[in-house]
Amino acid sequence: MNSAEIRKRWLDFFESGNRQGLNHAVVPSASLILNDPNLLLVNAGMVPFKPYFLGELPPPYPRATSVQKCVRTLDIDEVGKTTRHASFFQMCGNFSFGDYFKEGAISLAWELLTRSQSDGGFGFDPARLWVTVYLDDDEAADIWHKQVGVPKDRIQRRGMADNFWSMGVPGPCGPCSEIYFDRGPEYGRDGGPVADEDRYLEIWNLVFMQNLRGDGPGKEGYPILGELPAKNIDTGLGLERTAALLQGVDNIYEIDTTSIILRKASELTGVAYGLEEKSDVSLRVIADHARTAAMLIGDGVTPGNEGRGYVLRRMMRRVVRNMRILGSAEPTLVELIKSSIEAMSPQYPELRSDRERIEAVTANEEGTFLETLRSGTNIFDLAAESMKKSGAKVLPATDLFMLHDTYGFPFDLTLEMATEKGLAVDEAGFRQLMREQKERAKADAKAKKSGHTDLSEYRKILESGKSSEFIGYQSTSGEASILAIVSDGQSVQG
Ligand code: GLY
Predict the structure, then answer these.
(1) Structure confidence by residue, pLDDT tens digits, 291-344
(2) What SS3 class is residue 260?
(3) In this structure, are 223 and 345 located in the same domain?
């Protein structure tokens, strides 16, 4: 079943196709850069609905469903290495704003997952589904066992880190119940999701959104400030994970949409997929990040050194780096972005109409980065070579600083390259040099400022009858003679 079909079945089921008669309003995906002061990028399907959960706005409908574009970069280092981490994904969600609660959410999920494919469902074998509930959530455990019929030994209990969901920042939260598919013993150990999350793949998370969380660590140990005005439902089914299972492929990088980009990367580098783990990881990172970059640029993010711009820049640079690791030093990012547009535009047609802008942003960023890489990589290689000769194992802070400060080489990239070469880096020394440089820049700015604000020399020049005329609005060139020279606030002889 292709991704577009999964999406369609999802929306049809919740709009009017379920047997419980719970019709949901179909809401289009919001932009990835929805304005939320706590979030850089939309990271869950529920984000656009947050004001309804918090009671800040009256919900325009009691129930809703969507397939939301999401970006999560917390686990970026896992991308490509596991079968299930992606920086961009689409989250299929159904939401109840004070309408149905645990019983409704659980039975809807079970119906869609296990209904046969010929009858509009996803056709999962019920005997291979496992569920987890929050530690003391007997109510959810009972619904799974007594009403749905899941055997007790396939219902597991987990703590806050796994079965209490929040956006990772203050906002709505609640205990959750997750549904896993057992991919079989060839994928890992027996024992259910608590034993092995690669074998037991989480596909759907049902959040019983009833609390408000305060500030604190991302996953557990944060304070619960109280109850929300109503008991709500927020669920998230990973479209890509579901596609991997329904398409019979091993991981989310090989599904219909992502594999188009992966194949392009393989064609451009001449490195076949499936030969060797190390190059496979690179190909998966390329496919994942190129797609994320295309989606971010599509939604108006431009590469930069801060915030969302930095997330995008980092993705693009990791693609370029991995292409180089696979032997391609030529500019290829635009080609990969073109493939990403091809892969995603059936679901997001605006990518096609915005193609020129997306490609131009890409070409510009790649050009700048390739230049930086050329000079930075040479310097890095020389430093690594001389360490090899001297038998040193730690890349000195001065080299790290020079790469960063003189050549604009991103520090995370230096770290990655050092790891690849089995070298350690003097990160503490580097941070110290960065601090010192900041201090110097501050002192410099102060000195410059005072030099500029001491205008007495300029005043003297004007008072001596010399004056200058600005002709920049009429012309871009002209004859001029130097009337005086001021250095460090003092008049000097020319
Ligand atoms: N909001 C549910 C999830 O992201 O898992």
Answers:
(1) 999 999 999 999 998 889 989 998 999 999 899 889 998 899 999 999 999 999
(2) helix
(3) no
| Structural domains counted in the chain | 4
Comparing CA positions, the residue from 246, 244, 239 lying closest to residue 254 is 244
Distance CA 98, CA 117 (A): 31
State the burial class of residue 264 (Cβ atoms within 10 Å of its Cβ: 0-12, 13-18, 19+): buried
Helix (H, G, I), strand (E, B) or coil at 64: strand
Q: Is 101 within the bounds of a domain? A: yes
pLDDT at 453: 47
CA of residue 205 to ligand 1 center, whole Å: 6
369 Cα to the center of ligand 1, angstroms: 35
The pick from 234, 240, 241 for probing ligand 1's pocket by mutation, whose C-beta has the most ligand atoms within 8 angstroms, reads 234
158 CA distance to ligand 1 centroid (A)?
Answer: 16
Q: Which pLDDT tens digit goes with each residue over 162-192?
A: 999 998 888 999 999 999 999 999 999 999 9
Judge whether 315 and 111 are in contact, CB under 8 Å. Answer: no
Asked whether residue 384 is assigned to any structural domain, the reply reads no
Quick one: pLDDT at residue 455?
Answer: 62
Which pTM value belongs to this model? 0.79
> Closest ligand 1 atom to the C-alpha of 44?
4
Residue of minimum CA distance from atom 2 in ligand 1 = 236
Q: Which domain holds residue 274?
A: 255-372
- DSSP assignment of 396-462 equals -HHHHHHHHHTT---HHHHHHHHHHTT-EE-HHHHHHHHHHHHHHHHHHHHHHHHHHH--HHHHHHH
Asked if residue 156 and residue 130 are part of one domain, the reply reads yes
Using 70 as the pLDDT threshold, list the residues of the chain that sit under it: 445-456, 494
Whole-number pLDDT of residue 376: 86
Q: Which of 119, 108, 83 is nearest to 179 (CA)?
A: 108
Tens of pLDDT along 480-489?
888 888 887 7
Query: CA 402 from chain center: how many Å?
Result: 29
Q: Residue 239: inside a domain, yes or no?
A: yes
Residues having CB within 6 Å of any atom of ligand 1: 44-46, 165, 205, 207, 234, 236
pLDDT at 451: 47
Structure confidence at residue 145 (pLDDT) = 98
Q: Best of 90, 207, 211, 232 to mutate for ligand 1, by most ligand atoms within 8 A of CB?
A: 207
**Tell me, what's the pLDDT at 246?**
97
